[in-house]
Amino acid sequence: MGSETEGSSFDSNCINCWSVPRCCSTSLLYSFAQRNDTTVLDEPLYANYLKLTDVPRPYREEVLAAQNPDGNAVVSEQLLAAGGHEGRGGSRPVLYAKHMGKHKIGLGPELFRRAQHVVLVREPYGVLQSFSNVLEPTQQELGYTALLEIVSELRVLGRRPIVVNSDELVSEPAGVLRALCAALGLAWEPAMLSWPAGPKPYDGLWADWWYKNTHKSTGFDAEVRDARKPLPAHLKPLLAETYPLYDMLSRQAIRPLTETVPRPLGMHAADGAGDANDDPVTAISSSSTPSSSAAALTRPQDGCQVPAGGGAHRVGTHVYVQDPRNEDVLIGIRDGVSGRFELVWRPHARVSVLDSGYMLGDGVWEGIRLHRGVLFLLEEHFERLWEGAKAIDMDLGLSRQQLHQLVYDTVDANGMSSGVHIRLMVTRGLKPTPYQNPNITIGMPTIVIIPEHKEPSPIPREVGIRLFTVHVRRGPPDVQDPGWNSHSKLNCIAACIQANKAGADEALMLDPQGFVATCNSTNFFIVRKDMVWAPSPRHQLRGITRARVLQLCHDNCIPIKETDFYVTQVYSADEAFVTGTFAGVIPVVQVDGRVIGNGGRGPITARLQQLYADFVDRYCADGRRELR
Fold first, then answer.
1. Model confidence pTM above 0.85
2. Is the domain defined by 324-453 classed in CATH 1.10.150.120?
C-alpha cells in the first residue's frame, strides 16, 4: 500500500476522488469496488453540500435524511477514522470515496492533509451536454473551480496532485488504471476493468436520476456515453469560462502505463529544455465571426481570395457553403511531448508558438473528404503522407492504423457523415528554442486533425474558373521536391498573390523549362481533339484526385497522355479543367484573358465530373475499410 509520507496521522489507504459531474466517476467507483482490498463510498458528503448551498434536487429530503449533513463529522467518523468504516483494517483496508468537487464546501483542512486525493476531470463540452439533460448547469454546479482549489491546496501541502483525464480513462482504461494504482501505491488488479451491469448496493439513492448510462455498462465503454450533439447557444458562454480551467487541470493528468517500455520523449532534446506546459501557445483556429457582407458568403476561404469588386463570375476552386456548426467542432490534437490525444473545442484548439510547423513550416499535411461516413481514398492520402514524412526524416510515432482510428474518432465525435473536409497536419513537433535543426526537437511530432462541415459550392463546377499564368515557377526536386505536400507553401502562395492581383481565381504555374506544370492549389489538364492532356508529373504534387481522373480516363476509353506542353497550347485547347480533393473536377473557362473553347464547361469535363462523382459514391458505399 502507499507509504505514510505525511507522518503517522497520514492515511494512505483513504483515497478520495474529486470530480466534475458526468465524468465517469461512478464507473471509476465501480472499478475500485472490484478490488479485493477496497471498500467504496458513493458521495458521502452530498448531504453536506445540499445543506450548505440549498440547491434544489428532487431527492433532497431523502439524502438529508439518509446522510449526516455535517461534512466535517463525515470526514472524522467515516473517512479518516481507522477502522471506522466496515471492512477498514481487515481484509479490505482501503477506502475509496467518490465525491463531486463542489461537495468540499465547508470542510476543514484535515481531509486534505491526512488522505490521498485524486482529481477526475473531463472536457467540458461533453460534461455540459450530459449534465444539461438533467439539470441546468452553472459554474458552481460543474465544480471545475472546486477541482482547481483542491489541486492548489495539495500543491501548498507539498503533494503532487493525481489528476486523471476521464476521456483518456475511457479510451485507455488499462493504461490509466495502472498509472493511477502506481500513483496511489496500490497493486494493479485487472479485475478493475469490468463489473456486472445494473444497479449496485453501494449506489447513492440518486442513482435513478444520474446512473442510467452507467448501469448499462460492464466497463469503461464509450458507447454508453451520450452521443455528441450541438450545444445550445445559451451554454456556450459557460463552455468558454470552463475550458481554461479544464485545460489547466488536464495538463497535469497522469499518462497511461503499459506493459511494454514506453518510447522515451525528447531523444534529441537539448538539456534543460524545461516543461513543455510552460510554453506560450498560439491559436490554430477560432470561431468565425459572421461577415456583414453578403459577398463574404461566396468568397473562397481556403484558396485565392477574390479582390473586392472582382465580379460575381470569379469564384475560385475552394468556394464552400459556410456552416455555423463549424464554430463548435472538436479538433483532434496529439501532443508530441505528452503523447496525449485530445478532442478540443475549436475556440480553444492551440499549438505552441515553439512548434516546428509554426516556426519553420516543418511538416506535411493532407486534405481528406468524408462522404457517407467514409474517409475517401484514405489509403492513398496516407501513402503520400508517410512518403513525405519519410523524405524529411520524420517519424510520426504511431502506425497508419492508429492514425486511421484517430481521424475516425475525431469525425465520429463531431457526428459527421458527409459534406466534410478534414485537414490532417503533422509537424515535427516542439522546439526548446527557435532553431531549424530537426534533431533539436522535444518528443514526437504534433498531429492536428481539423474536420469541417464544408460542402463545395456547385457554382465553380458549372460556370468554371479563370486562371492567370504567373512568373513564379515550380522548382526542381533538387531545390525543394514539389512532390512534398509540405507546410511550407510560400512558392504556391507567391503564385496565388500574383493571380489575386490579376483578378483571376487561381494561378497557372510553369516548370523551370517553361512548360505548363500545375496550379497553385490544384492539378491542371487540357483537352485537345477529344484527348485529355496532363502536364508531366515532374514538377507538381502527386495529386490523389489527378491520379484518379487519369485512371477514370483509361477505364472509360477517354484518350489520355501525360506530356510537356506550352501555354500557347492551353490557349487553343478545346477544354481545360483542374482537379483537387476539395474541388473535384472544375472547368477552366479562361486563361490569361483567352477564352478556352466555347467559354463554358466542355463535354469531356462534364463527363469526367459525373464519372468522378459516381466513383466517390461507389467507393464509399462499401463502408469503412481496414488499413493493411
1. no
2. no
